[in-house]
Amino acid sequence: MGIIGADLVRQDAATLARAMAEGEVSSEEVTRAHLDRIGEVDDRVHAFLQVLSTEALDAARDIDRRRAAGEQLGPLAGVPIAVKDVLTMTGVPTTCGSRVLEGWRPPYDSTVVERLRAGGLVILGKTNMDEFAMGSSTEHSAYGPTHNPWDLERIPGGSGGGSAAALAAFEAPLAIGTDTGGSIRQPAAVTGTVGVKPTYGGVSRYGLVALASSLDQAGPCARTVKDTALLHAAIAGHDPRDSTSIQAPVPDVVAAADEADVRGMRIGLVRELRGEGYQAGVSQRFDEAVAILTDLGAEVVEVSCPHFEYALAAYYLILPSEASSNLARFDGMRYGLRMGDDGARSVEEVMSLTREAGFGAEVKRRIMIGTYALSSGYYDAYYGSAQKVRTLITRDFEAAFAQVDVLVSPTAPTTAFRIGDKVDDPLAMYLNDIATIPVNLAGNAAMSLPVGLAPEDGLPVGLQIMAPPMADDRLYRVGAALEAALVDRWGHLLIEEVPAL
Fold first, then answer.
1. Is residue 48 part of a domain?
2. Of 198, 236, 288, 396, which is the most exposed, with the fewest CB atoms less than 10 Å away?
């Protein structure tokens, strides 16, 4: 059955791609429908910082011309996508949600953007984010918060709340996020969407403005597991320009999503990521989803990762330390904002004024923590000790994966909280990532997918699946099986329940 005449913006990416390949609809029509949707709702959602209407329509028409000429195109050719504003695009403002990069137009594309263009995807624009990816709510953006389409008074998660909100508001069928401690997965959980943090090094970081270089990872976001797999396949693979890029074949994530079969798999419940501190409705929906996996033929066992309790403390020493080093380049001398450049001030004064005006409070907080942790006399006590804890967490994962194929936990301890509730309480904000941080410290792959609405507030709950390095396909095998079972139970995807804007 064709989709012409249907609401194009509510279709998944795989359906849109198939309809375009079969000539039922053009990329220009699909792109225009999504641009119209952005125009209708984004004044309330604020998912986008830049909307590239002219460029997107030109790209869509080019795909239509190439398809009409008989050219063989990629599986997602013509499908629109939103890109987090931490990835460079030639000539397009890239702010990282910060005033300090105001006016900067990169002279090059990131590898992820290059691969999107090569695959024929149509970039709709750049999405909002916590400044330099520091946050769990997208309230730390210098350009104002993004709102959760499920409840516009609540946060969409962070730091990639713009990408997740664009999906949940049906402004884009696909999006790119980045995940340093949960910034793809936690927004996915609270918006009822799907997000994957690939194995560290599985997707190139070239052109990704660095927060913490040993933790950052770009990844795919979508409304279905299959769409996420298709996007993952489009952006993954070795890149010689990224020294941390893995020189190994990309796991066949699309085939794994199509397989969608957990029979014979062993699934581990992480004891340390359950219980105290988790909202009752989150735990309830998680337990129900685990029971479904058992019904589908998986063997579910409890495993212990005893050093996970130290992950949050270690992360908030390692990340600020790397951020302190990486953000030193934003000095008002080479690009972006420059304050006090009147000829009467020294270079040091210009740098100080620029950073004072350009960086927000959360960025300044983490830079100061990181600089202190790296300082003479404290390096071994803080940063060095945190790296030792990181090794212990990696060993916990290795021991667990010797027993099971994947691990599962709730993605976030609560559903979306109200805008303003935690913005002045850094520790309360940091605790939102308690279940996601261990994966980044170890470099593993992980997915969040929606498993229902919490009975207390009717907001989405996410389940996290964790896999060993370069076993990303296991995420899609388990995620697709669980998604299919939930759709059979509900009669539709959870995202179809998002209130009309």
1. yes
2. 288
